[in-house]
Amino acid sequence: MKKNILKSFAAVMVLFLAFTQSSIAQKGPRGEAKKTPVERAEKMTERMTDKLGLNDYQSDQVAMLNLDLANSLKDIKDSEAPRAEKKESAMKLREIYVADVNTLLDAEQQEKFEKMMKRLKKKRGNKGGKGD
Length: 132
Description:
Blueprint: H1 2-25, H2 37-52, H3 56-78, H4 83-102, H5 107-125
Helix pairs in contact: 2-3, 3-4
């Protein structure tokens, strides 16, 4: 009977460890599940539409730019390039992105967007350079 209990306990522990390991592998540094570029782009678009008051046309165009940015940043992150080169590429990409978004916005929206980007840059800077 003790052998059955030990076998059951061992089986439960194996299952527990298997589930724990798989859930840990899918989570980022803050314990949140890693998002795909599509999910990040959708979230960015929702936030920008809300905070900048984008109309349907602007929102659709920004969604495309956000998806391009998210995919390109993932490609940079996944590349074999040195860290400094990745950072430089990401910075250039973001500069182009900001310029492209600004062409879609009116003056008031551009001001709000600039403030959003400054807050994001400051937040990214607080991570010790990570995320660039």
